[in-house]
Write a structure and sequence with these properties.
Blueprint (H helix, E strand, L loop, with lengths): L10 E6 L3 E7 L16 E5 L1 H10 L5 E8 L2 H13 L6 E4 L6 E6 L5 E6 L8 H8 L4 E7 L4 H8 L6 E5 L16 E5 H8 L6 H9 L5 E5 L5 E5 L2 E5 L12 H14 L4 H15 L16
Parallel strand pairs: 1-4, 1-8, 2-6, 4-5, 8-9, 9-10, 10-11
Antiparallel strand pairs: 2-3, 6-7, 11-12, 12-13
Helix pairs in contact: 1-7, 3-4, 5-6, 7-8
């Protein structure tokens, strides 16, 4: 299945990771042990970090593609339709027969915080063969990969440079060779993920970024929610503050950040400017319910 973008012209950004169905409800509070919390009617939508990132970039005019597997079920078909409608190239979104599409259970509290539990579908996890097949004809300026994927496909991807810019996101799989982080141009994580990687409880994103860069990435960005983002690279470091907004749903903020960031870097925008715009994109997204900013309401470039 192919989206509406013309692959002959090449791609701005290719996103590699998972796509799933989001089952979202608004709750007055999370259920306490032994108690039941009543929430809003359930909404069902296409989600998953890589899918969200691809749609965020496409809605800013990027030529994007997603490499992911989903089940050949109603949810899987809903996902491919959503991607195609958003203009994302789906040549490498494979429908796996007799597999169940993964799902995320999302509870959103009145303060806008989202609490997500992901039900993985082992049968739809990417393989090294999937990466090799997709990469054979891949022409793209940037690649964004979820580092929490099984180590085999991630190793296959990072062992050979597939694009001028390679961005890694999330806490690496525990069995991923840490030396592969040296193959990343940029590592992007939030404060919680940074703490998990460093096995520390530091609340200072600047210190976290510096420590993460010692692991090998050329540059590191640590997002800090309402406080924006910090970064460090071979020529220095900096910050990008976030505007003050009323958060309704934080579910897709990090994905909007990454989609915007990857697109601007693919277009040779300087890192600081790309991060500044990405912070605005994330801040814009939290003002809407759901992981995707409604079409026609994307943040200004």
């Amino acid at each position: 299945m192919t989206g509406s973008r013309n692959p002959a012209h090449g791609l701005d950004v290719t996103f590699i990771g998972r796509a799933n169905i989001d089952l979202t409800m608004q709750v007055p509070h999370r259920a306490r042990p032994g108690r039941t919390a009543k929430g809003s009617p359930l909404t069902v939508s296409a989600g998953g970090k890589s899918l969200n990132q691809a749609i965020a970039a496409a809605r800013r005019g990027a030529r994007t593609a997603l490499i992911a597997n989903v089940g050949a079920d109603a949810w899987g078909h809903h996902i491919t339709t959503t991607l195609t409608d958003a203009g994302v190239d789906t040549r490498h979104v494979h429908l796996i027969p007799d597999a169940t599409t993964g799902a995320a259970i999302i509870e959103v509290t009145p303060d806008g915080e989202s609490y997500i539990t992901l039900a993985l579908s082992p049968a739809t996890e990417l393989t090294s063969e999937d990466i090799d097949h997709a990469a054979a004809g891949l022409t793209t300026q940037a690649v964004v990969v979820q580092l929490d994927l099984p180590p085999e496909p991630t190793t296959t991807l990072l062992s050979h440079r597939r694009a001028p810019i390679v961005i890694g996101n999330l806490v690496p799989h525990p069995h991923l060779d840490p030396n592969l982080l040296q193959r990343l141009d940029i590592l992007v994580v939030n404060q919680h993920e940074a703490a998990a990687i460093l096995r520390s409880t530091t609340d200072d994103p600047v210190n976290a970024a510096v420590a993460l860069r010692r692991l090998g990435p050329r540059a590191v960005i640590v997002t800090a929610g309402e406080h924006g983002a910090v970064y460090t690279h071979p020529h220095g470091s900096g910050t990008a503050p976030a505007p003050t907004v009323q958060a309704i749903d934080t579910t897709g903020a990090g994905d909007a950040f990454l989609g915007s960031l990857a697109l601007d870097l693919a277009r040779n925008i300087p890192l600081h400017d790309a991060i500044t715009t990405a912070v605005r994109a994330g801040s814009h997204t939290v003002q809407h319910i759901g992981a995707h900013t409604p079409a026609g309401k994307t943040s200004p470039p």
